[in-house]
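Exercise: predict the fold of this chain.
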Amino acid sequence: MTKKIGFFKRLKSLNLHQKQVFAIALCQRMYPNYALFSQVCEFGNPQVLKTTLDLLWQKQYDRKLKFNLELYLERLDEVVPEPENYDVYGVYPAVDAVVALTSLLSAIQSKIEDDITNISKISSSTVASYIEATCEQEFETEEQIEDYVFAHPAMDEEREVQAKLLDVIESNFLSPEFIKELRSEIVESGISNIGISV
């Protein structure tokens, strides 16, 4: 989600490899949302998400790696929290983190490239929900809420991160070294799209 003209057009014009790296990077940024929820509410298993992400990254620079997508889709399905069972807001970003990763695996499996680019929207909608959930202002119309969300610093940052990521992926050859470096950068920053760190 960005004001930059043609963001989604540019995203959709990436090749399959570039799209996958972009989507994996966004899923990696969402991982701390699940890890913190799991730790606080003693539910699920962050290791399932972590292992899935590790294999997805590795597959980007090691084409020979065999990766049973069906198995990991099943494992992810087992660790999705049910929002109605929790009275904490953190359950929603945790669900989004699993949904994003599941969507990515399903898209890779079915070879539907548009579903890979939709990870961008899932990440942005997590940020939008977070802004609404933490807002103490009263609004009279849907439009006022949308304007508030769009102008919020957290949404600014989300747009900026996605735009920078797109720039970097567009302008670099995706060598194994480049992918490993990008992965390290995101993992080491440890900050999620809503500012959570574990």
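Check your answer against the key: The radius of gyration is 17 Å.
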